[in-house]
Automatic annotation (TrEMBL), chain A:
Domain ABC3 transporter permease C-terminal stretches: 291-403
Pfam families membership: FtsX (PF02687), MacB_PCD (PF12704)
Lineage: Bacteria, Pseudomonadati, Pseudomonadota, Gammaproteobacteria, Lysobacterales
Origin superkingdom: Bacteria
Residue stretches making up the MacB-like periplasmic core domain: 27-249
Protein name as annotated: ABC transporter permease
Protein's UniProt keywords contain Cell membrane: yes
Membrane topology field: Multi-pass membrane protein
UniProt KW keywords: Cell membrane, Membrane, Transmembrane, Transmembrane helix
Family note: Belongs to the ABC-4 integral membrane protein family.
Main localization, broad class: membrane
UniProtKB/TrEMBL annotation, chain B:
Protein name per the record: ABC transporter ATP-binding protein
Subcellular location: Cell membrane
Organism: Dyella flagellata
Signal peptide: none
Superkingdom to which the source organism belongs: Bacteria
Amino acid sequence: MHIQPILVALRRHKAGTVLIALQIALTLAIVCNALFIIHERVAHISEPSGVDEADLFVIANQWGAQYSTQETVERIQQDIATLRQLPSVQEASAANSYPMRGVGWDNFITMQPDQRAPTSDAAYFTGDENFLRTLGVKLIAGRDFRPEEVQNMGLRQNVATPVAIITKAMADKLFPKGEALGKTFYAMTSTPITVIGIVDVLHRGDVSTWSAPYAGESMVVPIRLAVPSGLFYIVRAKSGQLAAAMREAPKALYAENRMRIIDPKDGLLSFAQVRHRAFERDRGMAILMGIICVVLLAITAAGIVGLTSFWVGQRRRQIGVRRALGATHRDILNYFMTENLLISLGGLAIGVLLAFGLNLWLVTRFTLAMLPLTYVLGGVVILLLLGQGAVFAPALRASRVPPIEATRPA
Amino acid sequence: MLAYYLQLGLRSLRRNPMLTALMVMAIGFGVSASMITYSVFRAVSGNPIPDKSSRLFVPQIDSWGPGRNEKGDPPGALNYVDAMALTRAHQASRMTLIYQVGLSTLPRDADSVPIATEGYAVTADFFTMFDASFLYGSGWSTADDDSRAADIVLSDGFNQRMFGGANSVGRKITLSGHDYRVVGVTRHWDPSPRFYVAWMGAEFDNPPDYYLLLNRALDLQIDNDGRNSCRGAITYKNWGEFLQSNCVWLMPWVELDTSSDVARYRSFLESYSADQQRAGRFGWAPNVRLPDVMQWQEVQHSVPPESRISLIVAMSFFAICLVNTIGLLLAKFMRRAGEIGVRRALGATRHEIYAQYLVEAAAVGLAGGLLGLLLTAVGMSGVGLLFEPEIARLAHLDVSLIGLTLVAAVFATIAAAFYPAWRAAQVQPAWQLKSN
């Protein structure tokens, strides 16, 4: 295929050529970045929680009466006992929050009591001796809390616990040189906290972007939250009995003590619902970007079909002449395919620059990550195939122009 | 003449139904994607209090110091000690403090279970500062603040739930075991975004049920149910010690009427901080800020980044659709070069050709706009799929959005047609007549 004649012909269709190239360039820029946004969001959505999601549910329990700290502690212990007695319930625990709740507590972590710049900002869970077992979190080193270690925490009563269980991610951040077990750190405390256990994965309570540098860094302290507002009961159903447990648990709690609030709207959530709610934004963003990508590619393809068809119509006579002079069907087909390839390559060259430019802007404005080269290459391949696919039908029509056209007036 | 052009245009559009459909669809999709994302963006980025947004300010004092503050900026809320000091100083024409409370109450029927309620503890000036309007009664006075009265203002929704919508002023309401006297019921009033609680990220949460008198709430040790942020080692063991801690949780607002008031208040904040430094409470130089409503929304990132990114991507998408339309219009117009030649030869001026093709493009734009409107309406019902419910419910299709959709579609298409129409007008009649 000689490229020279194609280029000469294109020079006579400057506007159309530039428009197709521009459209391909812009499409590449948007599609690459949209696909990358989709990838990032999906990666966020599929983050591991570290808990036994299939059998877990959470009750947000608020108190409907005014109890002293001691009374609250007794109520909590009674509630946990009630929940554990249910035939469909395996285990229950009282906590201040749970993974992927959407918001959560976090404490600055320092290695020294007087250190000003924190080493980490860890998610802070208060749980009783059943916390890890209920969640089904995997303890990979050390031990779980003992019942006698659990302290009660009333209104604005700060409790300094001497021990904590931390995640592997946090252990690696705090003690990069190895063994964290038995070492100490400070979590906005004036006394050191000793690491007594390390769990594999325990997702933070929040799913925000600010905490991305501290992803997976969670700590659990043996505290029972006996404040006036309320707390969360994390309940693990026996395998396959989640629905039954979710039905029975609130009923049993209300039967035992009516003066409580389990919000009908979001007071009772299965972990599947928790996960669904936590990543609503990410899912929406991924869906929107997906729709835009698909429609955009369709419109670009349709645009190429439209303009090429017009060119074919305009050049029927020239095609006829070429055919009369001995060009085969294949030559004509190749001509239009190559023409599109050249325009596409030109457009894509600009598009690659635009894609990185747009990404750079998104990076500075919206803390998006850098666009990996693979996405741009993928986008280039998609658009080349799209262009060739779109041009095929008009090119085929062009190749069927009979040589007799040469003799007809345009 | 315009009617004739329109007729010509419509006839020509009918001649290439595929090409026309392609253009109409490109514009329809482009404009609807932009409008759907814009409707959300408009809802989250608007000025919630246009009349006063430049007169309401957040006084920020650096009570944490270098290394502990927000990357050099003071925290976005005040601790109890500073909040009370600023209130007592009376340096602004009005000032309020806000924190969120969550309390339980029993609905009217006695054998029901308690329900959860949420509200804000505020001071007297809150209502006047933020232009609250009242259905019944009014807010309380500064004197009530000082006498720590058990006053409460209900929202219309909560008044409906608790008192069936009746005038409840003077009635008693029990929240978490304590009685309050209803002094007012607000008319439906909920600025969006709820800028005054932007610091705790509650701009789009459910509206509050009531507003409690702050001093009373503090007396009853009603805990802060919203954001709380502390630095250093936390050592408080009870409510009283918590109030003296460096934890920030009270959201302050001041009203300052003139720019000289603003300057004076800023220097007051500085001298207050300097006093604290001299007294040894702050070990650093004064570091204060005084942003107004719109600046505060910017600082607090009230607009979710998702909303901005989707608007940008949707508008780029629209731009690509327009590039597409330019190409298709060019193909369409130039295909009729012969026809143009005849018309020019018969005496039509270039301007007339130009006008004719712009009118034709406008017809395409209008059709695209109508399709876009349809798609926007359909898309609006699906907004819940793309944004979280609190934000999705703010987006709606109103008259202004309908108008904007049509206007955007028509004007964008006409703009896209400038070049193709110009090319059409440049057609040399002699050339075309000869080749025919």
